[in-house]
Write a structure and sequence with these properties.
single chain; alpha/beta; Spore Coat Polysaccharide Biosynthesis Protein SpsA, Chain A; two-stranded antiparallel ribbon
Length: 337
């Protein structure tokens, strides 16, 4: 199979204890690696003592999600990587459909399985659901999950289709394409880094897929809770970095100001609802984005020089927040691509 499943861990001994057994049971033939991001708990000792078939790769300091994976994957030589969150339960046959897809279609650079909630296995999970998309302003969403509205899994997404982005919670990717793109952008640290990687893959002429015949269950919030202001900060900061880095100039000139205004409205909603910490996180995100605008411009230029095409698909041409909040379009099937 020539596949390496790489689980990035930071103080996640409880997740490893709970979910490593399913990975071992259902991943025959794959190399399983726990890449430890300089944990201060007993994660490493626990894996070494209880899961001898699992390799441990030590990262000398906590480099975050992006830096941790970049460091680890430079040392892994398999043809295919699976970047798997530690709080994911896999199922029988989860590997084979996606590996078959990669084996049979060289244009596919990355893919993801169906992601259902571990807490309620009948419902799609926030991080990836049935494949990721973005709207014309660069807001991400998923089949099966728009904002915080989640669909039940009734077989409506048991298909194999191209998507815009595949989730970092369970990301299958060709090793050659990962390194060709320079891996994950470490300035993102965590959150939306996989969307940026997939956007660059599209610009390089490759495709991203969702494979509904493979299923995993994700706890979600295993590293940062959904309401954590730190997560709010990363989402708003990285959301701006994402479009600044990848959008064509003619689009960015008007879409970036619109995004800034909409972010301010979101911040006010946080404040009105009593989430003062989230309100502050949005303003901090904007300040840090603007503070490093020179670095953002340098990255934009570097990417533009190596990936000249801006014509990528599939992007939803509508404005998601308008369709969702004003037009009542609550599911992916309501949207017209």
């Amino acid at each position: 199979m020539n596949t390496a499943i790489v689980i990035l861990n930071y103080n996640g001994r409880h997740w490893l204890e709970q979910f490593l057994p399913s990975v071992i049971q259902h991943s025959t033939g794959a190399r399983i690696i726990v890449a430890d991001n300089c944990s201060t708990d007993d994660s490493v000792q626990f894996v070494n003592n209880h899961f001898r078939e699992v390799e441990v790769l030590l990262i000398p300091s906590n480099l975050g999600f992006c830096g941790g994976y970049n460091f680890a994957l430079k040392q892994v030589k398999e043809d295919y990587y699976v970047l798997l969150n530690s709080d994911v339960e896999v199922t029988a046959g989860w590997l084979e459909p996606i590996i078959h897809l990669l084996n049979t279609d060289a244009s596919v650079a990355a893919a993801q399985p169906k992601i259902l909630s571990y807490a309620d296995k009948t419902v799609f999970e926030y991080a990836g659901a049935a494949g990721g998309f973005i709207d014309t302003l660069g807001y991400p969403f998923c089949r099966g999950r728009i904002f915080t509205d989640f669909e039940k899994d009734e077989g409506q997404y048991n298909d194999t289709v191209p998507v815009f982005w595949a989730t970092g919670a369970c990301l299958f990717i060709r090793a050659s394409r990962y390194h060709e793109m320079g891996g994950l952008d470490e300035d993102f640290f965590a959150h939306m880094e996989e969307i940026d990687l997939c956007w660059r893959l599209h610009r390089a002429g490759y495709r991203i897929y969702y494979e509904g015949r493979s299923t995993v269950y994700h706890v979600g919030g295993g590293t940062l809770a959904a309401s954590n202001p730190r997560k709010t900060y990363f989402n708003f900061r990285n959301g701006l970095s994402l479009i600044y880095k990848n959008m064509e100039t003619s689009e960015l000139l008007w879409k970036l100001p619109v995004r800034l205004v909409l972010d301010h409205i979101a911040a006010l909603r946080f404040l009105v609802s009593g989430s003062v910490a989230d309100f502050k996180a949005v303003w901090k995100a904007h300040w840090h984005f603007l503070k490093r605008i020179g670095r953002e411009q340098s990255k934009r230029k570097t990417v533009a020089n190596s990936l000249r095409s801006y014509q990528v698909n599939p992007i939803y041409k509508g404005v998601l927040i308008v369709d969702f909040f004003l037009r009542g379009k609550k599911t992916f099937r309501d949207l017209k691509f």
